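hey can u run this one w/ NAP bound, need the structure tokens asap thx
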Amino acid sequence: MKRVKMSDRLTLSAVVQGFWRLDGWNMDADELAYFMNCCIDRGVTTFDTAEIYGNTAVEKLMGDAFSKDPSIRSRIELVTKTGIFNHNGFGYYNTTSDRIIQSCHESLKRLNTDYIDLYLIHREDPLLDPWDTAKALKKLKSEGLVGEAGVSNFDPYKFDGLNKAMDGMLVTNQIEWNPVCFEHFNSGMIDYLTFHKIHPMIWSPLAGGRIFNKDDQLCERAYRKIAEIADRHHEDPATIIYAWIMYHPVGAIPLSGSKNPTRLDLAIRALDVKLEQYEWFEIYSASGQQQIR
Ligand SMILES: NC(=O)c1ccc[n+]([C@@H]2O[C@H](COP(=O)([O-])OP(=O)(O)OC[C@H]3O[C@@H](n4cnc5c(N)ncnc54)[C@H](OP(=O)(O)O)[C@@H]3O)[C@@H](O)[C@H]2O)c1
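ok here u go:
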């Protein structure tokens, strides 16, 4: 499996397994440990989760699996996120220093581990004070509780602000990108990351499964073109989508969200697919949202 260098101290597998949907997978700790080993056997050693997934239940389930098979933790890079909370079902953000430090300790406990390889601020917080947030991230790094820090869903302004407060040490922005979502192309975030040689992690590369929905007009239009390209390459359409994401010079790392290892294989296979330049643009414009002038 290809590895992607995020910093001098951290590399990630070029395909990451996401665990957002884990609380719907109906796996006990043994089954989850088995699934995690299936990922590791394939070279997919980076696991992504978040404090808010399943309202903290997902981190707990993962921690139980790490206890069942204690060999797993040292063979993976563990990514988790903080900053989203809910008060009686009302969602809000908190990226203050004290809250981040408290959350990190709580996540470590749930995950049954004493360090997090990559700790992300989950969403851009309108109340973000980059200097205060950076204070917590720097402290957690200096204590060895967190290996590297990054963010998720940030626009270029907030990314730049927090990165300056972090002395340029943010290693990623985890963002949504798929054949029907171009927010971060249009905001300039992808250009920013490409220029600064920072690799984004890409969530919902298959639009959370929506891309296969024939009743969704945008997805149906995009999928028809993707299926045509997949035929040309004798590949699965999902593989073509992952290859499209990995084609970009920014060096993006897709997160597969499936509970099915054979669907994870479709992402891994994309590392060997070489699209033509015109095919990249065929997918870029297929949904009709992005114009080629
Ligand atoms: N930072 C953030 O704000 C953020 C937000 C969302 C997600 N994430 C991360 O990104 C990861 C991936 O996101 P995602 O789960 O939305 O990714 P995704 O890979 O786009 O979607 C996964 C979903 O698509 C389904 N699927 C896959 N192949 C399919 C097919 N051929 N036909 C029908 N359905 C298919 C899967 O079902 P099966 O399981 O049945 O295969 C699963 O429900 C998450 O686990 C999480 O770690 C981060």
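The first strand starts at residue 3 and ends at 5. anyway lmk if its weird
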